[in-house]
Amino acid sequence: MQAEPEAFARGLENALDLEMVTRMFGALAALSNVSLSVRPGERRAVLGSNGAGKTTLFNCITGDFLPTSGTIRFFGEDVTEFPPQERVRRGLRRTYQTSLLFKKLTVRENVHLACRGVSRQRFSFFPSRRDDVLIAAAEKLVEAVHLTSAKDKIVADLSHGQQRQLEIAMALAGAPRLILFDEPAAGLSPAERQDLVAILTSLPAHIGFIIIEHDMDVALRVAESVTVMHDGRIFKEGAPREIEADEEVQELYLGGEDG
To answer: Where is the ABC transporter domain (predicted)?
Structure first.
């Protein structure tokens, strides 16, 4: 059997390793031989115009789509064929472009349900006591995303920006080791984007994340490394300053689709 590449064989050093991941939809290659490594605690931005393969990349990492070929490891474990819930149990979390919230419940109730969903109590039919550890955990998460003043509001009555903040709180439930943020700044006002940057940069250092974002200003402010995708492949990788100054990246963004 052919030996794995040295960097990939040392997968235990990384939070996430993708090796030659391809995802086909019929004859269309949405991802083509993508190899990517993310260290524990690393904050990485994934940039690219529409159709670059960013969301398909996330779907393969989370298990929403299985790759057509290639291998995915999460903290050294091969999770390529794992369903999404098994990846969640191992500490992987994700937000989506379209909000997946309980609109008729309060902020606090949404976060408490998220905490309960990744706990041992997730199958219990008994309500939590007021002094339940999950109640306390939910309160801390609400505070962490700057929603304490809105914790008793019905989610349907929140602004779009507040709903985005709530999604981050729910992704932080349990003990996440890596979070995938799918365009969290979409539709936010300038003030809300500033708040988003503050929230993401203040996350505990042990929690790594990958952020897909069309707003380069937000992405480059919260990330320590950047991957640029184009046509389902990795186009460039580097530090935020390198990517921002790269003429080919600038040409790709100015010449590609807006959005």
So the answer is: 16-256
Residues 69, 52: Cα–Cα separation, whole Å = 18
What are the structural domains of the chain?
1-91+177-259 (3.40.50.300), 99-174 (no CATH)
Query: What CA–CA distance (Å, rounded) separates 126 from 248?
Result: 57
pLDDT band at 26 (very low <50, low <70, confident <90, very high): very high
Give the whole-angstrom CA distance, residue 256 versus residue 133. 49
List 71's β-bridge partners, or say none: 19
Please report the DSSP string for 52-66 in residue order: SSHHHHHHHHHTSS-
Torsion of CA 153, 157, 163, 167, to 10 degrees: 50
Question: Once rounded to an integer, what is the mean pLDDT over residues 115-139?
Answer: 69
Residue 4 has pLDDT above 70, yes or no: no
pLDDT digits (tens, 9 = 90+) for 35-66: 999 999 999 999 998 889 999 999 999 999 99
Looking up tokens 């069309």, which residue turns up?
214
Query: What is the distance between the alpha carbons of residues 112 and 135, in angstroms, rounded to a whole number?
Result: 6
